[in-house]
Structure formats: structure tokens, C-alpha cells
Amino acid sequence: MQYKVDLMLPSSQAWLDTVIQDFASFLQDHADCERKASAMVMSFVAKYPEKHEIIPELIETGIEELQHFQQVYTLMQQKGIPLAKEMAPDPYIKQLMALSHGGTPETRFRDRLLLASIIESRGCERFKMVSEVLEDAELKRFYKILWASEAKHSHIFVHMALIYFEEREIYHRLEQLLTEEARIIKDLPLKAALH
Q1: 13-187 belongs to which CATH class?
Q2: pTM for this one?
Q3: For the chain, what is the HEC assignment?
């Protein structure tokens, strides 16, 4: 059984160039994304306490995301980069999450898990791209370690979905959501941000 999420559209060189040209802004956005990721994972625990099969793994993942935030923040402090004054809305996440609206509570739960997988997969892909071009040895090492962790997270959410839903249903819906994610990522304006 495959847990891996295969993105349909790779991130562009133009996105990578934009990030490298303003890496301080990318770090600020990255810190915000890790805080949001931790909150998103813990929101599953708050919203679905009856899904006891996945609660321990959700808690562990939420802690890992918070640790990533701590690590990014430490790097920022070392480089004299402050946190962003406010967390701006993320148009990528907003458009993706809109895909889970409607339907029954169970189908929304399914879609939220699958969207979490897609978001983690996109982060993994982009952290890998960044790690391959960074010249700063410390940052390069950090992003190499991080993309491996994000890859694990994308698998976790697909695995969780398969506990509650039929395999055929999960992979059919995942393909639909990946098609929409490719459209969303294609139309996003370029900025020095993870999404």
C-alpha cells in the first residue's frame, strides 16, 4: 500500500529564485508556517477526540512541528531576523482548505487529513529544493534534515485516512485534491514564502 503523495506540478525555479533572493522573509514565513502546522495538527485532536487510534501520532506530530518552529526561530535569532509582526493569511492554505467544505462531517475529516498530506508534501518538496542550493552550511544541513521530517509527515496523514476509509476512496479523492492543488500552486503569485 502506498502512503506517498505524488505532487502533480513541481515547484518552479522562479519560486526558488524568489526565495533565495530574500531569504530573511522566507525564514519569517517558514516560522509562521511551523506554528500554523502545529496548531492545525492539534486541531484534529480537539475536533476529533473520538478518533483515538490516531491521537498519539497527532500529538507527536504537533510537538515535532512546534520543535521545527523553535529551530527556525533559533536560526533567525542567530541571524538577527525578527519574527514577522503578524501572521499574514496564506492564500494557498485558504484555497486548499476550501476544498474540504461541504459534504458530511466524515468526508470533511477525510479531506482535512488528505489536505494535510498534500501540504506536508509540498513543504517537503520545497525544503529539499532550498537545501540543494543554499551556500550557508548550517542552513543547508537544517533544511536537508527538515525535508526528511516533512516527508514522514505526509505519509502519516495518508496512513491515518486509511484507518477510517476504503483505500479506493482515499486514492480517488487524493487524486482529485492533487489536481486542484496543482492548479492553485500554478496560479499563486511568487513571493519569498513557503507557499
Answers
A1: mainly alpha
A2: 0.95
A3: CCCCCCCCCCCCHHHHHHHHHCHHHHHHHHHHHHHHHHHHHHHHHHHCCCCCCCHHHHHHHHHHHHHHHHHHHHHHHHCCCCCCCCCCCCHHHHHHHHCCCCCCHHHHHHHHHHHHHHHHHHHHHHHHHHHHHCCCHHHHHHHHHHHHHHHHHHHHHHHHHHHHCCHHHHHHHHHHHHHHHHHHHHHCCCCCCCC
d(CA 85, CA 183): 30
Query: Could you report the per-residue pLDDT of 34-55, keeping only the tens digit for each?
Result: 999 999 999 999 999 999 999 9
Could you state, in order of their start, the residue ranges of all structural domains in the chain? Answer: 13-187
Band (132; pLDDT cuts 50, 70, 90): very high
Region at 101 (left for phi over 0; alpha for psi -120 to 50; beta for the rest): beta
